[in-house]
Amino acid sequence: MSQIAFIDLQAQRARLGDKIDSAIQKVLTHGGFIMGPEVREFEARLAEFCGAKHAISCSSGTDALLLPLMAEGVGAGDAVFVPSMTFASTAEVVALLGATPVFCDVLEDTFNMDPASLEAAIAAAKEKGLTPKAVIPVDLFGQPADFESLLPIAEKNGLFVLDDAAQGFGGTVKGKKIGTFGNATATSFFPAKPLGCYGDGGAVLTDDDTLADVMRSLRVHGKGTDKYDNVRVGVNARLDTIQAAILIEKLAIFPDEIEARNRIATRYNELLKDVAVVPVVAEGAVSVWAQYTLKVKDRAALQADIKNRGVPTAVYYPLPLHRQTAYKECPTPSGGLPVSDRLAESVISLPMHPYLDDPTQDRIVEAVRAAAG
Ligand SMILES: *Cc1c(COP(=O)(O)O)cnc(C)c1O
């Protein structure tokens, strides 16, 4: 039997036909590889897509998290609240700036930041003499964080809100698109993300004119109006023109792909709900299903069993950040992070992409049912 792809990027490439090849060819011909016309065009389209005033493209999702924190002057003595159940970048950028990541637990059903744990983490940070400065809710596995609960807590505590939408860009809450919650939103165009390019890439979205200006400067070494008078210490974090050209083509079919992802996730839920704990999407929210993640009892056995049936799986994340070597000294609320610890033992993600056809999905479902039943 053929091996099933965990994420089938070739199927998307086949659908786009020669559009991407000619978009790349166009850049090769005009030669504006750095900040070429496609970069501005893509930024305009991305801002329009999500309803944000500014889209600032950059070199990765990690840099998209870094730029707004740099612009806000986050540094030593500051506490930045992040969920422990996330990819390393969310906390890494905080530590890189000399600030302290303070970990929060997540909710058992949506895997996203637990508002009660955020309040407990704020108290823990204050006890340590840190200044609560920012919070980075993550839209884990494609589902928007619980902004309705988190934003008032942030406001009460004067926290800058940076949405880590590396997995959730394209999602909505009550019709409002990701990209417009909090002060800024960071997303990633890593190839395997819901909206990916063919290399590294990212973008920051914001409605704040001043913040946008500072980030545009930071992205190019802290440039001022005179290119050779840098006005602040910045980084080199530009998006390549070739990647922007690719993203313009991919963004055009993204709404249709989001629909397909939701159809596939709903079908998984129907076919698996009696043998595993299937993912839950909060009322009013639309996920982009960066991952389709089950909770199971004996994960190791299930993973091995279905691998033998040609079905690949992945575990996001086997070790929550507060357990990882680089971050284990970072503060956590009293009582620890029991949900993150538990989820790390029980979550497993199945193949998920917009081109997963019914027969292939049936093979995956049969394998899971046979192994879990
Ligand atoms: C992928 C990811 C990032 C980092 O994006 P890169 O483009 O790989 O730098 C940050 N946060 C989360 C939650 C991610 O999934």
Radius of gyration: 21 Å
Largest sheet: 7 strands, mixed
Mean pLDDT: 97
Strand order of the largest sheet: 1-9-8-5-4-2-3
What overall geometry do the principal axes of the alpha carbons give?
globular
In total, how many beta strands? 12
Order of helices and strands: HHHEHEHEHEHEEEEEHHEEHHEH
Please mark out the parts with pLDDT under 50 across 5 or more consecutive residues, or reply none: none
Write the layout of secondary structure elements.
Blueprint: H1 9-16, H2 19-30, H3 37-50, E1 54-58, H4 61-71, E2 78-83, H5 89-96, E3 100-104, H6 115-127, E4 131-135, H7 147-156, E5 160-164, E6 172-173, E7 176-177, E8 184-188, E9 202-206, H8 209-219, H9 241-272, E10 285-286, E11 292-295, H10 299-308, H11 338-346, E12 347-350, H12 358-372
Parallel strand pairs: 2-3, 2-4, 4-5, 5-8
Antiparallel strand pairs: 1-9, 6-7, 6-10, 8-9, 11-12
Helix pairs in contact: 2-9, 3-9, 4-5, 4-8, 9-12, 10-12
Bound molecules: pyridoxal-5'-phosphate.
Pyridoxal-5'-phosphate binds next to helix 4 and helix 5.
